[in-house]
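Hi U.,

Before I forget, here's the chain from the pilot set. I'm dumping it here mostly so it's searchable later in email.
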Amino acid sequence: MAKVVHISEAASLAVHSMVLIAGSPEMLNVNQISAVTHSSRNHLAKVMQILVKNGYLDSVRGPRGGFTLKGDPGKINLLQIYELIEGSLEEHHCGIETQKCPFDACVFGGLADKFSIEFIEYLRTKTLTDLISKY
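Structure:
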């Protein structure tokens, strides 16, 4: 079934993991996060490596290891995390690959652009702090 908005599993794992870690008083490891998110441990580990490599998380190896947030959760917005995984989001999107629509008015009523702009604005304005109490 097609989806109007597609959020990849990797982007979703990155955002969920960051919120979980930001809200936890203790380090969380891949097994714990994987259990909470019902996700593949291996896929999650790859996402976590990206977050560590790009300076969002610190990691400690070993049986008592795990991840901690590196930085102020109030200054990390969801757009930063999303775009780290997926790349920059486009505000304007048309299904025609050439981006040269033959019509004077959008046959979709401009909804694709509207959805994109609203989605980007939501991600830009929501920080980890805003979501910590949601779970």
